[in-house]
Design goal:
Helix content is 29%, strand content 28%. With 110 residues, it is α+β, with helices and mostly antiparallel strands. A hairpin with a 2-residue loop joins strand 4 and strand 5. The N and C termini lie close together (10 Å).
């Protein structure tokens, strides 16, 4: 699985707004780390352009198959966690969050 690594940390994609979902909807682990989406989200955070959000949706359709919920890509942010860290993505107060692993959640390694 390709990942963006910077200063011994891994880029992880999560929504920054309550009521928007990324991993909890698509359930595709590779989309937590996808380098192209990370690049586009970082570009989006600087410009706030709907064109970039559309570019993310187009890329995801082309790469992972058409879905009806790529629209949440407009609200993604990149969080960095240490390489090798175990984490899970949970839904807390209507918001996805990176959290300490538990037995009831799928766990990933950065």
């Amino acid at each position: 699985m390709n990942k963006v690594i910077k200063d011994n940390t891994v880029a992880v994609l999560v929504p920054k707004v309550s009521g928007t979902y990324w991993f909890t909807r698509h359930k595709l682990p590779q989309l937590l780390f996808d380098p192209v989406v990370v690049y586009l989200v970082q570009k989006l955070s600087k410009s706030h352009s709907l064109d970039i959000a559309s570019e993310i949706e187009y890329y995801c359709d082309k790469t992972y198959g058409e879905r009806d919920y790529w629209g949440d890509s407009m609200y993604l942010t990149v969080e960095y966690i240490s390489v090798g860290s175990m984490f899970s993505v949970t839904l807390e107060d209507d918001r996805e969050a990176i959290s300490i692993p538990s037995l009831k959640h799928e766990v990933f390694i950065a």
